[in-house]
């Protein structure tokens, strides 16, 4: 019997995860990607050797780490792994010991957080205990700000608020408390090393797209870049899927849409109109990354937390020289950046330079190497958000992406999990 065949539309991390899983399940894979390179939003730029924004992983992202290992990526060579440290310019606020059980590590980290007064540490301990006693559940319509009412102000401003916007890319006054609690549960209290920070020592391309490409080619998968899918249809007789593309038609027994939500909705507007309406209801938040060069400079830690405010857009600054990249190269990250983009990317970058001058004493003439805005970086992770299903309806069709229903916000882990799930669902359907 010939192999059942699958078309994967989209070569981002969800599409790559789906393609790898389909190959492992014995399906013949054809992957179609509009862009000239794979990787989606988490990709390396073609010029300058920079990435399309600063990305990090945490130890709780186990499906992503397993996928990387499957395609030949060594974690030790690809990442600098360190225990969670919230380090500000005047010292660490929270530092979890390595190798401890999750609960004990969090308890010890809070008790040893000497830069915080006892009232702050006790407030965080009391809050964390109350969340655990409630099973990390809360009313579905709560924001993170509502969840933390009454919390000590330092605990809020130097722990909860920066972690929330980093994890959900949504400001805490609008972010879903339930999703935030799920991330905290998995990262801080479920998996040993789940809160560890994994800082990439290699480019985004070498984290997954390039190794996955080589692995897929060895498995016989057909990979087509610069190939835009224009329309989808099904043969009435054999119910095979046909993707009409800029390079001609492709046909397969099954189809996985792993493109953006807007592209997926447009391709399925006739077949699945209600599903498309759910996609259209999603709103998105940008992320800005400002790459800066200051030869000879070095931060007290590879990742430094910054104080965000009305004139201070960035939440974190990364010393890329400390994690295997060019010495003197830094990246400042502005999550939930919609307000800052109203006056343009250059205005945001200059505000970052001024912020570093005020908070770190950097010169105002520090060189901005490049500023990057991913306008639709993530969906806005708001309370009671109805995210589209990964199974829109027609047999032989699945959808993957970080916006699909799932426990996590729009993260690489969410994208990978959805890709794996879509492949398994499709394999099960094609096997019946």
TrEMBL record:
Keywords: Oxidoreductase. One of its GO terms (molecular function) is oxidoreductase activity. Residues 14-426 form the Amine oxidase domain. Transmembrane segments: none annotated. Its EC number is 1.17.8.1. Pfam families: Amino_oxidase. It is an enzyme of class 1 (oxidoreductase). InterPro entries: Amino_oxidase, FAD/NAD-bd_sf, SQase_HpnE, Zeta_carotene_desat/Oxidored. This is Hydroxysqualene dehydroxylase HpnE. It comes from Roseateles rivi. The lineage of its organism: Bacteria, Pseudomonadati, Pseudomonadota, Betaproteobacteria, Burkholderiales. The gene is hpnE.
């Amino acid at each position: 019997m010939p192999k059942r065949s699958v078309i994967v539309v989209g070569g981002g991390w969800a599409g790559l995860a789906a393609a790898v899983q389909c190959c492992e399940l014995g399906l013949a894979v054809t992957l179609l990607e509009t862009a000239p390179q794979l990787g989606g939003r988490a990709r390396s730029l073609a010029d300058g050797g920079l990435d399309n924004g600063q990305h990090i992983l945490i130890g709780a992202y186990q499906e992503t780490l397993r996928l990387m290992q499957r395609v030949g990526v060594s974690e030790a060579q690809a990442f600098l792994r360190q225990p969670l440290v919230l380090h500000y310019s005047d010292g660490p606020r929270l530092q979890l010991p390595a190798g401890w059980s999750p609960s004990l590590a969090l308890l010890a980290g809070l008790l040893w957080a000497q830069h915080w007064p006892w009232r702050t540490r006790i407030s965080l301990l009391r809050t964390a205990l109350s969340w655990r006693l409630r099973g990390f559940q809360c009313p579905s319509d709560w924001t993170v700000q509502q969840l933390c009412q009454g919390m000590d102000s330092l605990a809020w401003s130097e722990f909860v608020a920066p972690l929330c916007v980093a994890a959900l890319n949504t400001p805490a006054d609008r972010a879903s408390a339930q999703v935030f609690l799920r991330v905290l549960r998995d990262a801080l209290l479920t998996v040993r090393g789940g809160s560890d920070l994994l800082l990439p020592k290699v480019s985004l391309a070498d984290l997954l797209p390039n190794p996955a490409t080589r692995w897929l080619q060895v498995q016989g998968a057909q990979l087509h870049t610069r190939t835009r899918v224009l329309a989808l249809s099904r043969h009435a007789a054999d119910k095979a899927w046909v993707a009409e593309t800029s390079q001609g038609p492709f046909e397969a027994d099954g189809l996985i849409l792993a493109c953006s939500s807007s592209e997926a909705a447009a391709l399925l507007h006739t077949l699945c109109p209600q599903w498309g309406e759910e996609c259209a209801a999603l709103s998105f938040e940008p992320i800005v990354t400002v790459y800066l060069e200051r030869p000879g400079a070095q931060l007290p830690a590879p990742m430094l937390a910054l104080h965000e405010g009305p004139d201070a857009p960035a939440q974190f600054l990364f010393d890329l020289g400390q994690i295997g990249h060019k010495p003197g190269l830094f990246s400042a990250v502005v999550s939930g950046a919609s307000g800052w983009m109203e006056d343009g990317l250059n205005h945001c970058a200059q505000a970052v330079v001024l912020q570093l001058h005020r908070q770190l004493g950097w010169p105002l003439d520090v060189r901005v190497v490049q500023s990057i805005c991913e306008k639709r970086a993530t969906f806005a992770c708001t309370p009671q958000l109805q995210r589209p299903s990964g199974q829109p309806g027609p047999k032989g069709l699945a959808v993957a992406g970080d916006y699909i229903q799932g426990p996590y916000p729009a993260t690489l882990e969410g994208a990978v999990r959805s890709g794996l799930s879509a492949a398994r669902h499709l394999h099960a359907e094609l096997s019946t």
